[in-house]
Amino acid sequence: MNYLDRNEFNYAPSPEVLEALKNFDVNKLCFYTRIYDEGKKSILSVYLAERYGVDEAQVLLGYGGEDILKQAVHYFLTEADGNKTMLIPRFSWWYYKSIADEVNGRTLEYPLYEEGDTYRYDLDEMKRMVLCHQPKILLIASPNNPTGNGLTPDELSELLADIPATTTVVVDEAYASFVTADTTYIQRLVNQYPNLIISRTLSKFYGLPGLRMGFGFISKELGRFIKYSNKYLGYNRISEDLAIAALQADDYYRNVARQMNESRACYEQEIGRLEGFTVYKSVANFVLVKYPIALKPALQKAFAEQEYKVKFMNEPGIDTHLRITLGRPEQNRIVIDTIKNIAHT
Ligand SMILES: Cc1ncc(COP(=O)(O)O)c(C=O)c1O
What we know:
Layout: E1 2-4, H1 15-23, H2 43-52, E2 59-62, H3 65-77, E3 85-89, H4 95-102, E4 106-110, E5 112-115, E6 118-121, H5 123-133, E7 137-141, H6 153-161, E8 168-172, H7 184-192, E9 196-201, E10 214-218, H8 223-229, H9 237-247, H10 250-271, E11 278-279, E12 286-290, H11 296-306, E13 308-312, E14 321-325, H12 329-344
Parallel strand pairs: 1-13, 3-4, 3-7, 7-8, 8-9
Antiparallel strand pairs: 2-10, 5-6, 9-10, 11-12, 12-14, 13-14
Helix pairs in contact: 1-9, 3-4, 10-12, 11-12
The protein binds pyridoxal-5'-phosphate (PLP).
Residues 7, 64-66, 93, 141, 145, 172, 174, 201, 203, 209, 214 line the site of pyridoxal-5'-phosphate.
């Protein structure tokens, strides 16, 4: 089976990751890390602090981005002030609402506007909704799954300038490394604003969803949450080593991302011109495709026959859409040809 339904990695891990796994000293597993004695949480947070230019105390680690997001949502929506409201994008990862529901949170959706082959956030509308609803959390996904749009660092900064400190802004940047290698804005923003959490992951750009390793950056002022999040006895020591190896192999992963971009261009050129189809612009490891809904059964059958799994979206307003992970070029070719065959019959 070819899995192009969960934005996973259909390429091989970088040679550096394989090396790190081969060289891992298994005796390390017999002991907890001692880095805690130095007041640090992990060799990985130390590495990330240096690389991103922030204090180690401002680095969060989690069991994937999902864990960082869940920790933040559970923590802030259960604070003593009783404010259980979180704003999320209208079309977004289903998980945001689900983790709010787990603690009886209330999620409100802010709009995402479709304009031709893109979606966009409306900063003024987001600010207006924050002022009106005074949410405990404003969650922004950038780039957003499944619509592929995001905010630039300038837009994010402009938004943060108008958000009261009582609202924690959580930015899910799971796919952000596909947009740019420049991460300098992270240091700037977490030090400038008192209410910011940025969540990233090894699962997408660095292609290691099975590693279950996420990391984040946070304003110093949110110190109580930092304390809540930190693990006293440390983190998985194999994952720490492999994560550092992957983060040091940027060239390898940039090259994979370049190949994905070439495949995305094929989708745009070949599927985008089919009658009734739209291929949305995105900078991530997936494409969102609108298709004529009458073709759904035929498409489902054809993908099943080819042993390909792609994501047929079901959410209202975005239910005539397919989200397709960018795989290896030959896989992408099969998906494109499968869609073209159905569209032409
Ligand atoms: C928007 C978004 N955020 C976060 C994640 C979390 O991934 P992980 O927990 O593997 O880091 C995903 C995974 O699909 C995602 O789509």
